Amino acid sequence: MEILERLNKQKAVFAVVLVMLAFTTYRIATNVLKKRALPAHPTAGQVELRKADEKLSAEIEPKGFGKFWRFGPRNPFQPPKASVEAVGYFTITERNGFFVVRGLYDCKSDGPVDRIELEYPRKWVAAAGNDAIKLHKAPSARGRSVSEAVFKELQEGGFEVHLTFTLYTKWLNRAEFPKIAVKGAASEKGHIGVRSTRDYYLKPSPGQGLSKVSRPPSRLRKADVAYRYSSHPYKLTLEMRKKRTTVTTRPPTRPPTRPPIRPPTRPPTRPPTRPPVRPPNAGGGNAQGAFEVPFTFKAMIAVPKRFIILENKETGKLTRCAVGDTVNDLTIVEIYSTSVLIEDEQGNRYELIDPLRQKYD
Asked: Are residues 147 and 212 located together in one domain of the fold?
């Protein structure tokens, strides 16, 4: 407070502005230095890096300005990059009428790597083959596109980069294999496979820089033909042809003849013999030894169940009978619409006719 009292108004304003300027400069310099790409210091978020231990944390987050000076006095703010050797395995095929290239780069580095730059023709569209990387567009020129494949985790030693390239020009009969390259790689070589589909045939025409291999590598086991390149540039032209569908017909063949199946012969069966039905003698003048029924057929009831009404000749008593009932040692065997069949104890059967029918007959 005593120092501020000694200063006049102009000096106090100058001191405050100087402090604010120094603080602003410090904040800007800190943000700029944090965004610098260092070995083992990717620009991806810290949540994606998943720091494993204190050593890796110390590599990812520099604590002071001395971290930059240890890379050499010539360019302290640009650390040396790790050397990467890439071996490519890519197969071109057809999908929904488009040319599609799928494959990977098998890389080896002598230091920590957080990203690699891929260079390919501008007509092709690149996409990540899995969730291990994220592709970001970078400035490009001369008809070439550049994408940065940023790893979610820091890579060192051997690692793979899975990629997919698509040429979105439908029903294009002729195309050239895209010249894919790892920008800034110490060395690059690889294999290219060609695979036809069920509906389309891809005819390759190899050019400079390619040599055909008799047996495709294991990573290109589904390819119909494979080529090897040792360096850039190389050229491979492909022609897409639709396969012709051929229908083969076979002459009709007769089924094998089988002997006719005859039903088994069975001996004729005779119907069961029934005792003859004798008409009852209901009159008074019976022959000697003839059987006389002790009742007469009076009426028939069909609802709800078929019954008959019999009248005793001696007493005049009426009896309602159904099939199976026994009256005076006579069993009711069957009741028809106009008659009834009865059977005695000896098995003799007799038919009593409806009195109306008997009357009119």
From this structure: yes
User: Is the domain of 98 the same as that of 61?
Assistant: no
- DSSP strand pairing (187-194 vs 84-95): parallel
Q: Give the pair of three-digit tokens for residue 279.
A: 């008409």
Q: Pick from 225, 242, 259: which residue ends a domain?
A: 242
Cα(202)–Cα(194) distance, rounded to whole angstroms? 7
- Do 231 and 208 belong to one domain? yes
For residue 144, what are the domain limits?
A: 84-242
pLDDT digits (tens, 9 = 90+) for 255-285: 778 788 877 777 777 766 555 555 555 433 3
Phi, psi of 98 (to 5 degrees): -110, 155
In the numeric block, the tokens 């396969």 are attached to 243
215: left (phi over 0), alpha (psi -120 to 50) or beta: beta
Is 154 in contact with 109 (CB distance < 8 Å)?
no
Instruction: Note the pLDDT tens digit of each residue in 24-79.
Output: 888 888 776 665 544 444 444 433 333 344 444 444 444 444 444 433 343 444 45
175 in any annotated domain: yes
Q: Which amino acid is at 179?
A: K
The DSSP call for residue 286 is P
Rounded CA gap, 333 and 356, in Å? 21
Q: Where are the beta strands (DSSP E) in 170-250?
A: 174-176, 181-183, 187-194, 200-206, 211-213, 225-229, 236-242
The order of strands in the sheet holding 295-301 is: 295-301, 307-312, 318-321
Say which residue the tokens 């990203």 belong to: 115
Max Cα–Cα distance, the chain, nearest Å: 173
215 and 349 together in one domain:
no
**Cβ 342 vs Cβ 329: under 8 Å:** no
Residue 157 sits at the vertex; the CA angle it makes with 164 and 223, to the nearest 5 degrees, is 35
